[in-house]
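Example record for the data management plan.
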Amino acid sequence: MAKKFTIAALIALFTLPAFADDAGGYKGGETPPRTQDSGYKGTEDTTSPSISEVKTMRDGAWVTLEGYIVKQKGEQSYQLRGRNNETIDLVIPKKVFDGKTYDAEDQVRMNGRLRHDGARRWVDVEQLGAP
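Corresponding structural encoding:
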């Protein structure tokens, strides 16, 4: 009797997903905007800020930048060129590159903390990849 009850319970348990509604997830809503910025469909606030805007942020602010690494200035020091040919210094530890190689023609997206030292501004990069 216990075996039959156990088998019936297992059959009921494994056939339950077969009766689930197969409707899926999100189906409706507003039409997305027609403009596309930086690979994302959405509003204008999805774009990364310009370098001049980043330079005005507080010390330690988390920033996301897109651009081109155009120059190596030291062992872990680089220069990023963004929109409007603005530049900012970067500190990118070797582990952040994760074995990937980038050159001045590869657009990158990076996340990191903005740092201040007097008038000098730079970003300590913690994540780096393709946009």
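Summary line stored alongside the record: The radius of gyration is 25 Å.
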